């Protein structure tokens, strides 16, 4: 065969190869997904190549629904609510997922000297931040624009119109206490020594982020930004090689950017007293209840951001630090080796301080 013929054959083979494998040569792009979950919403941005977008949407939604079925206090049939209804003094078998979150909550309770307490549900409900007196029916499965007004009315059923009395608070505190939960890791059981109401809302959203991340990683996606109700997980880089970045904002409604951070394969959670609160007779009461006193936290700390390998732990620590305040919070964070950013009120506006390696994640202001 002549050289000219050989070149012609080679050219044809190259064309066939390009056509045959053209699907592999697609350029990566950023796709988006989102939807309602846990009484709030979730969103995702991820680098896609050939994974069908509906498949990613469904994978995340299913992972979050699985968490909701286990951890929700707004669903009568959730595993957590079944545990809350279980008889006092009898070991109750739970799933590995629920056991793990309760176990993590107990650890943070010990490290925070009881400021953080997943059994604080009775006090949260008393102050009107939980299921409330009127929340007897299940939360609507799908929340959309058409149901927002009805959902708002549903939430308001449990809101208090006056501050609980000291007697009411003392009575509720009798049903609070993380040490009244006995965990048996070997048999995976939880025993309540008194009728506590366990509330995992301070850790479940972060845990949901991690579960959703595992779901899309199973589809081959290794670069994404996942968010559930403000708790976020970042991994990988964008198609242009840039890292994902998020802003930690000052706790004012004008959303002024305070600090920009970036990290890889870690979660970040924030907690603050500026969006969830009640106001009675002109007094502002935070939704974060100190289980030790029975009253909402009250100090100069405005918000806390925590970065951790485990987004659920970041979620829980952020709540714990808000309750501890601007003095005890950083002290506990340093002792526990937690990477956190504390933003607090001063006479000259907001100031911030970081603990652990938080400053290493800061990439701009």
TrEMBL record:
Coiled coil: none
EC number assigned by the record: 2.7.1.180
Presence of the UniProt keyword Metal-binding in the record: yes
KW Cell division (keyword) present: no
Record-given protein name: FAD:protein FMN transferase
GO molecular function: transferase activity
Enzyme class name: transferase
Protein family according to the UniProt entry: Belongs to the ApbE family.
Cofactor or coenzyme needed: Mg(2+)
Reaction catalysed by this enzyme: L-threonyl-[protein] + FAD = FMN-L-threonyl-[protein] + AMP + H(+)
Alphabetical UniProt keywords: FAD, Flavoprotein, Magnesium, Metal-binding, Transferase
Pfam families given in the database record: ApbE
């Amino acid at each position: 065969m002549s050289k000219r013929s050989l070149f012609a054959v080679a050219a044809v083979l190259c064309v066939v190869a390009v056509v045959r494998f053209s699907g592999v040569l697609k350029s990566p792009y950023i796709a988006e997904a989102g939807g309602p979950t846990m009484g709030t919403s979730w969103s995702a941005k991820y680098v896609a190549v050939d994974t069908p977008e509906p498949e990613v949407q469904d994978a995340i939604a299913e992972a979050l629904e699985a968490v909701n079925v286990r951890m929700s206090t707004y669903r009568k049939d959730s595993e957590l609510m079944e545990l809350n209804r279980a008889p006092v003094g009898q070991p109750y078998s739970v799933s590995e997922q629920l056991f793990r979150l309760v176990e993590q909550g107990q650890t943070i309770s010990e490290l925070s000297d009881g400021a953080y307490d997943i059994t604080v549900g009775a006090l949260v409900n008393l102050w009107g931040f939980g299921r409330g007196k009127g929340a007897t029916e299940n939360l609507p499965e799908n929340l959309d624009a058409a149901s927002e007004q009805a959902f708002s009315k549903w939430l308001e059923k449990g809101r208090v119109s006056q501050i609980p009395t000291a007697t009411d608070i003392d009575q509720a505190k009798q049903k609070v206490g993380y040490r009244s939960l006995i965990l048996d890791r070997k048999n995976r059981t939880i025993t309540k020594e008194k009728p506590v109401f366990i509330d995992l809302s301070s850790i479940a959203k972060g845990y949901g982020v991690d579960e959703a991340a595992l779901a899309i990683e199973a589809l081959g996606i290794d670069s994404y930004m996942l968010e559930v109700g403000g708790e976020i997980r970042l991994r990988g880089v964008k198609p242009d090689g840039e890292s994902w970045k998020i802003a930690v904002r000052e706790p004012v409604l004008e959303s002024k950017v305070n600090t920009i951070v970036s990290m890889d394969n870690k979660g970040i959670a924030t907690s603050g007293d500026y969006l969830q609160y009640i106001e009675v007779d002109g007094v502002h009461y935070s939704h974060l209840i100190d289980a030790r006193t029975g009253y909402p936290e009250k100090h100069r700390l405005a918000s806390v951001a925590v970065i951790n390998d485990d987004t659920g732990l970041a979620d829980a620590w952020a709540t714990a630090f808000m309750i501890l305040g601007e003095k005890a919070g950083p002290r506990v964070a340093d002792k526990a080796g937690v990477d956190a950013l504390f933003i607090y009120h001063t006479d000259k506006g907001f100031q911030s301080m970081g603990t652990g390696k938080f400053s290493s994640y800061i990439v701009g202001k």
